[in-house]
Amino acid sequence: MSAGPGASEPPLPNNPSHRYQSLDAVRGVAVMGILIANMPGFALPAPAYFSPLAWGGTGPADLTAWFTTFVLIEGKMRGLFSFLFGASILLVIDRAQAAGQSAAAVHLGRMAVLLLIGLAHRYLIWWGDILAHYALVGAVAFIFVRLDQRRLLAAGLVVLVMTLAWNASTWNGLLWAGARSTPAQVEIWSNFAWAFGVPPSDWSTGEIAAMRASWSEQIAWRWQYLESEVSFLSAVGLETLAAMLLGMAAFRSGFLTGEWERAQYRHFAAWALGATFLAYALLALNTMWHGFDQRWVFFGSVVGTVPFRVLGAAGYAACIILLLRPGGSLTERVSAVGRAAFTNYLGTSLIVTGIFYGWGFGLFGTLSRAEIYIVPPLVWALMLTWSKPWLERYRYGPLEWLWRSLARLELQPMLRSAAS
């Protein structure tokens, strides 16, 4: 992703309180959009995240919901979050250096606190946490912060190719296991079924019973069945790093800070999203054609979409930047959601698990795949309602303040009047 004519690396604002509204708005859309992607993980047994055969129904409405979310949302919101996380790493480091602080100490301190918060989120609230993973990959990404935009772009593309090769080799092992004629093949096939196929029914019913039970029983289930952070890192760490590096390149080029010409954003968004939607639609149809066989669920969700997840994320970012209307009511509210994205992300977990888990209304596993998408608009309305008034009074969202205070080992000023 190269800069447009006349674009240069975005200057660091002299005023440390300055924010790039384009980054805030894109982050706001990402935290709202990722709720759609995460809904099957909140409301249905874990294998249903990828495969409708696992739970949630296979009627016309359910398959339409799966197809639509796969083409428009799946992977791209996570990619957008990773993209923005990379940009934020550079922004924080640039500001630390401008203030005469140690970039390594500031960055690694933030990642250490994020890791602890992410692990607490994962085991105490919801298994689908991404924060701990971002903390680990973000620590590695620090190695690349001194690169210029072209080297960041090259590094990101190299890591993306490595991701494709890694995922393809994993898929090849799944194809080999499809014969299920040896104990080793049966074991591999069964292990993949837990995430991409249809595991034994007692496993899904056991998860449903645990999620409808007490909070302590939910924690016990997660502690017993969740894979380790190291395993998750080995599975998707390369792809996350690639997206972060490309986000860094996009920040350095001025793409994420709104410095390109509008015609360039339009052109980029058109071809990036056009290619992404076409690829995803073909992969979705192929998965359906094969009857959601787990080999093709894995290929469509993990292998074939590798080049298009971050491309689609960048295309969405270009669209959002084009739609920005500084001073407009909706733009200001979406930007506020992005400024408090950390609070909104974790707050969403509390709200939605309260709807589906046993400590709340206990609706886990009771709604169809189509019905669970009633929830996101209600949560979006809450995000858009509270974020702007809060940030008009306070410098940070509640959890942004906590993260910043813990990372700096010092309580940060919260009230705007105190800051001024």
Automatic annotation (TrEMBL):
Keyword line: Membrane, Transmembrane, Transmembrane helix
TM region(s), chain numbering: 29-50, 70-93, 105-124, 130-147, 152-169, 232-256, 268-290, 296-324, 345-364
Q: Which InterPro entries match?
A: Bact_Transport_Assoc (IPR052529), DUF418 (IPR007349)
Outline the extent of the DUF418 domain. Answer: 250-408
* Record flagged with keyword Transmembrane helix: yes
Would I find Transmembrane helix among this entry's keywords? yes
Pfam families associated with the record: DUF418
Q: Which PANTHER family match?
A: INNER MEMBRANE PROTEIN
Question: What protein does this entry describe?
Answer: Membrane protein
